[in-house]
Model the fold of this input.
Amino acid sequence: VQLQASGGGLVQHGGSLKLSCTSSGLSLAGHTIGWFRQAPGKEREGLSCIGVRDGTKYYANVVKGRFAISRDNAKNAVYLQMNGLKPEDTAVYYCSTVDRGLRRWGQGTLVTVSS
Done:
């Protein structure tokens, strides 16, 4: 089971990026999927997650109103639309889920926001 985050890159302050989380070997539709990030020298922090049945969404205060999580079950993908990016959003972004009692992580995608 592998998760893969993609879509990172270099963007200017105020810009937007859309991250994608896909998987080989795991149906994301049946799992709650979360997005996390880790900036240099900082602990990994949870940003957002999307539930299974009713698609309940959660956002950390630091991204509320700027980021939006969604899923496309037909494409076996979960997305994180990031708007109004700030230099402090610079980090490696990961998607994650718990599958059969184990926390699964993607390899991460780097987002760099220039000032």
In short: The CA atoms of residues 48 and 59 lie 4 Å apart. The two ends are 37 Å apart (CA to CA).
